[in-house]
Amino acid sequence: MSEKVAYTCEDHLITQQNRKEKAFLTAFEAEKPCLDNAHIVVNPYIINPLSALILFKTDKKVTATVTVHGKRNSREDITHTFAESTSHVIPVLCLYEGIETKVTVALSDGQSKTFQIQSEELPKDVCRCKNILTSMDYFGTNIMFLTPAGKNLPTGYDYKGDIRWLLTVNTMFDIKRLANGNIMTGSSRFCRMPYNATGLVELSLIGKIYKEYRMPGNYHHDHWEMEDGNILALTQDFRNSTVEDMIALLDRETGEVLRTWDFKDFLPQNVGGSGSQDAHDWFHNNALWYNKKNNSITLSGRHQDAVVNIDYDTSKLNWIIGDPEGWPQEMVDKYFFTPVGDVENFDWQYEQHACVVCPDGDIMCFDNGQYRAKVKEKYIKNRDNFSRGVRYRIDTDKMEIEQVWQYGKELGQQFFSPYISNVEYYDEGHYMIHSGGISAVDGYASDGLGAFMDPKDPSVELHSTTVEEKDGVVLYKMDVEGNFYRGEKLSPYHGGENLVLGEGRLVGNLDETPTFDTIPDVEEVNELPSSERQIAIEEDEDRFVFHGMFEHGSLAMVVLAGEKENRGYYLNTAAVSHLAMCSGAFLEKDDRQLKMNISKIGLSGKYEIKVIYNDKMYQTGITIYC
């Protein structure tokens, strides 16, 4: 460690959780407490300060019912019964912040005990609910989970807007509940800009991570649990010149990539582009949906203003929903739909998110509406635009499309979100619409994305609005501070089993970080880089992340000087403009601040870390062992 180069080495969060679980279980097994003197562990898995475990033994098998009492009345109580056991490890979810929460455990043999559990404090900058309109009769004890689109955190709100769930690590993109009751979401670990994480994590709502699925092409945006448990996940191949245009099928147990789909095999890259398209991010896949009925995958391509459907087995293109302007006529004739019905009120979707296949085959999405045209001369200013949830009815025999529902157009710029957001289908006429990227400057919809804006600027307002509508009546509306990627309503508890214990695992693999062909022949000096370079190195079990500040256009490289080899990793100091930023978790305030993830795959032995800046190679004083 030096004053100029910061270095940290930390075990992976899974390792930290394994160690903590082993410690409290060892104490539990040694003491074998009964219900009256049960062990209570607050925030047992480090990352959920509004959770606890109650651990106790019973002489015979009994069921245990936990009640997390509401702070206002008994209608707010969250109650769940666990399966019979003699060894009870009861997860307590949805503690209130800042006060003691009354929690009762009642056993089927008549025993009962009430505890007062004080939660840990939440981070000071959590995003608060600004306004909520709903009722206990409608929303009950469900929690609205919002996933972050910036430096904010995954947060869950009850029917009053109180924060009842929070993770203190920035897991990203969608949360989905798995068949076993756990949730799956993106890892919080940085891998590549702008928002590629190492992979997916499966965890319980209490915060225990069971697996991290590392992916060679990293993870972004969305995933899907197949019937056999395997996982479809959005990814890319960084050996190519394009991104966000692949799906990987992951083995649920091992994380092995079983199969991939490359969108360039069934779509052209240089046609039908949205206002945010470039050659690198030509499709920008932000959602997928598997439909067992016809064995197809539906995809949302933001940068082609297109919802696309392909055959799962053959990758054959079936159809495209979107404005056909700019597409080849032969594709328009074969794959696009013709509007029917109330065509005067029909609108195509633009730069959409979150495609959903309804039970009857209708297609829903969140129509962000960014630009709302295919030709630059027709682009609409954000302050004059609208976003909405929309449902289309498609006839694939006649290739006709009818707009059968929408919510949001009538709200104009106040509901406009140029990025992120989602919709959910609950039942016929019962939907959720989450506009997660609302941003305004001086009261008008901003021209930029919220992820690039400074929430501390008094002229800037960032918020998210989540609405649930049933048969045309709004029964839930919540406005919260900050932009949030998606919303997902879930009950806190699921299934009757006790918490599954045991060591979490890292599965799958990262790719081997590519090296630069040659290391420049520059003068090596026995000194540290200037403090202006702000060099920092973060190491964990399978990689390290290099941070530094470099002027645009300068020569910069990380060099690993080994006993048997030297490896050079080029740092791109060119100014980069991002047309999409669905999560700003990894963004820096100064675009000269760079970071690079270097996988330990392919490394062996001891390496000294050095830095080339312009015409000199500097020491860092840091050595890693692989």
Description:
With 626 residues, this protein is mainly beta. It has 3 domains: 120 residues, Sandwich (Immunoglobulin-like), CATH 2.60.40; 90 residues, Sandwich (Immunoglobulin-like); 271 residues, no CATH class. The protein has 3 helices and 43 strands. Strands 7, 29, 30, 31, 32 and 33 form a 6-stranded antiparallel β-sheet that branches. Strands 11, 12, 13, 14, 15 and 35 form a 6-stranded mixed β-sheet that branches. The protein is globular.
Task: Give the tags.
5% helix; six-stranded antiparallel β-sheet; 626 residues; Immunoglobulin-like; globular; six-stranded mixed β-sheet
Outline of the structure:
About 5% of the residues lie in helices and about 45% in strands. The protein is mainly beta. Strand 20 (about 285-290) and strand 21 form a beta hairpin.
- Biggest β-sheet description: 6 strands, antiparallel
Radius of gyration: 26 Å
* Low-pLDDT residue spans: none
Cα shape: globular
SS strand fraction: 35-45%
Query: Helical content, roughly?
Result: under 10%
Which class do the helix and strand fractions yield? mainly beta
Please provide the count of β strands.
43
Number of DSSP helices? 3
How far apart, in Å, are the first and last alpha carbons?
19 Å
**Count of structural domains:** 3
The chain-level mean pLDDT equals 95
Give the secondary structure arrangement, pairings included.
Blueprint: E1 5-9, H1 13-31, E2 39-42, E3 52-68, E4 78-92, E5 100-107, E6 112-118, E7 129-133, H2 136-139, E8 143-148, E9 155-157, E10 163-166, E11 172-177, E12 183-186, E13 190-192, E14 196-203, E15 209-219, E16 223-225, E17 231-235, E18 246-250, E19 257-262, E20 285-291, E21 296-301, E22 306-311, E23 317-321, H3 329-335, E24 338-339, E25 353-357, E26 363-367, E27 388-395, E28 400-407, E29 422-427, E30 430-441, E31 444-445, E32 460-470, E33 473-481, E34 484-490, E35 505-508, E36 523-524, E37 535-539, E38 543-549, E39 556-562, E40 566-570, E41 593-599, E42 606-613, E43 616-625
Parallel strand pairs: 1-37, 15-35, 24-28, 36-43
Antiparallel strand pairs: 2-3, 3-4, 3-5, 5-6, 7-33, 8-9, 8-34, 9-10, 11-12, 12-14, 13-14, 14-15, 16-17, 17-18, 18-19, 20-21, 21-22, 22-23, 25-26, 26-27, 27-28, 29-30, 30-31, 30-32, 32-33, 37-38, 38-41, 39-40, 39-42, 42-43
